[in-house]
Each structure stands twice: as C-alpha cells, then as structure tokens.
Amino acid sequence: MFSKILIANRGEIACRVIKTARRMGIATVAVYSDADADALHVKMADEAVHIGPPPAAESYLLADKIVEAIKATGAEAVHPGYGFLSENGAFAERLAAEGVAFIGPNVRAIQAMGDKIESK
After folding, report:
1. Dihedral through CA 76, CA 10, CA 26, CA 107, nearest 10?
2. Which residues of 54-75 are buried (b: 16+ CB within 10 A; e: fewer)?
3. pLDDT score at 102
4. What CATH number is attached to the domain comprising 56?
5. Is 107 exposed, middle or buried (0-12, 13-18, 19+ CB in 10 A)?
6. Which residues of the chain have pLDDT under 50?
C-alpha cells in the first residue's frame, strides 16, 4: 500500500478520494489552480501544491506540473480522478517512467478506451 498519494483533480471527486485515503491511513496531496486556492479539497488534503492559473489547460492538464508536485511532496502514486489526465495514456506512461504508480487502468486499457472502435 502507499503512504502518500497525489490527487490530480479537484472538487467533489478529489474530496471523495481524500476521504477514502484518510480511512485507509494514506496521506494525501491536493493540487490546485489559482481559482481553487480556497476549495474544499485543498483544505481537506494533508498537503497542497499550487500548479498554475485557472484554465485547466494551464494547470490540471499539464503533466509536467503534476510531476513537479509529485517530486516536491514525495507522493508514491497518483489518483487521477476522472476527466483531466485520467484518460491520457501518455500521462500514465510518464508516471511509470518516473517510478510513480498510476491508480487506475493500465496504459493499454486507457489507450483502448480512447479508441472508440477498439473499446467496443
């Protein structure tokens, strides 16, 4: 099991992951944009890392920002929540290359789901 995970999402999904991790005795790291600085998931997490301005394309969708947050906090795994990077196979591959676990489907499954014909 992991001792610390980073949640690469915001809002209700991040809060749910944080609550579950807390019940399991796992420390949590939230990430947030300028717009989410006072959000509940930021307050609930054990640690929080600022990742950029409000547009998701300049914060939550930038794998480099998430990896920087992982390195800064020592998180061992990333829970992507849903949306954002959860359906990005390249992000899961990047985490593997960095030695960080991706809490979700494997890269092949993510890529297959991205291909609507193959996923049927």
Report:
1. -40
2. eeeeebbbbbebbbebbeebeb
3. 96
4. 3.40.50.20
5. middle
6. 115-120
In this prediction, residue 98 carries a pLDDT of: 96
Q: What's the domain count of the chain?
A: 1
Tokens of 116: 């609507």
Residue 79 amino acid letter: H
Please give the residue range of the domain that contains residue 47.
4-119
Please state the pTM of the whole predicted model: 0.91
**Strands across the sheet containing 27-33:** 47-52, 27-33, 4-7, 77-79, 101-102
